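Support request from a user on the community tier.

User writes: "When I paste my structure tokens into the form, the page sometimes reloads and wipes my input. The last time it worked, I copied everything first. Here is what I submitted, just in case something in the input itself triggers the reload:"
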């Protein structure tokens, strides 16, 4: 197999860099900051790309960085009182937000499930900036509050049926992929990163339950699955199932009969 790079590899790289630059300009945390504060923070940020399987945090104690995720899917595992929880973090997430305001907070391990772009800043520098600029501290606090509410909605709504919870998580993974804005309305949803076992771990559902839910969705021609990939051809139906509503297929969602809601 040839090790030569394709002739247009530099152009492809430049396009990826341009896309990530555009994403950085639209991150809510940055757009909410006053211009001078945003410029001061930008002087301390470094753009980085990480490959699948690379660790972002929890590698070497004392070398922790804060990461603003621009695109990709990251598995973050936090341990509290001996129990470990898995959460998927994507575009607009801040890894290390709690540690900015709480020096005693334990670092959560974070691993890239897909190619991931971030803007990174050393934790000590981020703390200094937050202490000196109230707008940055307010932005960090807002991010923490929104993340906690989102975790309740996506991961901890145990009263919902397994199919509702799986559909909600797939929609959340699509929302935070960083590619949703470039997709035409009604286009298929493409989610990549987590394994079925990781979906079950995040939702605290057994692997058998996850497999049964995905099998139902495949039989109804809502979903196609591959290795760490989930393609939803009928996004309107997926949303209806996540809300516990009887789906009403339209022209874009035509297909075989849908699985009954539990």
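"...and here is what came back when it finally went through:"
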């Amino acid at each position: 197999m040839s090790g030569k790079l394709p002739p247009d590899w530099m152009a492809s790289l430049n396009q990826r860099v341009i896309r990530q630059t555009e994403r950085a300009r639209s991150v809510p945390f940055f757009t909410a900051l006053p211009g001078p504060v945003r410029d001061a923070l930008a002087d301390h940020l470094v753009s980085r790309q990480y490959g699948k399987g690379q660790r972002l945090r929890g590698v070497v104690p004392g070398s922790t960085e804060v990461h603003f995720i621009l695109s990709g899917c990251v598995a973050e595992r936090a341990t509290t009182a001996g129990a470990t929880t898995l959460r998927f973090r994507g575009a607009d997430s801040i890894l290390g937000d709690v540690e900015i305001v709480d020096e005693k907070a334990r670092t959560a391990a974070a691993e890239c499930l897909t190619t991931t772009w971030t803007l990174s800043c050393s934790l000590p520098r981020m703390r200094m900036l937050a202490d000196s600029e109230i707008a940055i501290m307010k932005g960090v606090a807002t991010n923490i509050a929104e993340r906690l509410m989102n975790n309740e909605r996506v991961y901890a709504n145990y009263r919902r049926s397994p199919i509702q919870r799986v559909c909600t998580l797939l929609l959340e993974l699509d929302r935070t992929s960083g590619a949703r804005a470039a997709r035409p309305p009604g286009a298929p949803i493409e989610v990549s990163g987590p394994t079925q076992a990781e979906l079950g771990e995040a939702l605290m559902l057994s692997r058998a339950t996850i497999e049964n839910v995905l099998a139902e969705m495949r039989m109804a021609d809502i979903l196609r699955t591959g290795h760490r990939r989930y393609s939803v051809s009928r996004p309107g139906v997926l949303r209806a199932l996540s809300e516990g509503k009887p789906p009403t297929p339209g022209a874009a969602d035509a297909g075989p009969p849908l699985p009954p809601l539990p």
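Agent notes: The reload is a front-end session timeout and is unrelated to the input. The chain has two domains: 13-154, 162-253. The first strand starts at residue 46 and ends at 50. Escalated to web team.
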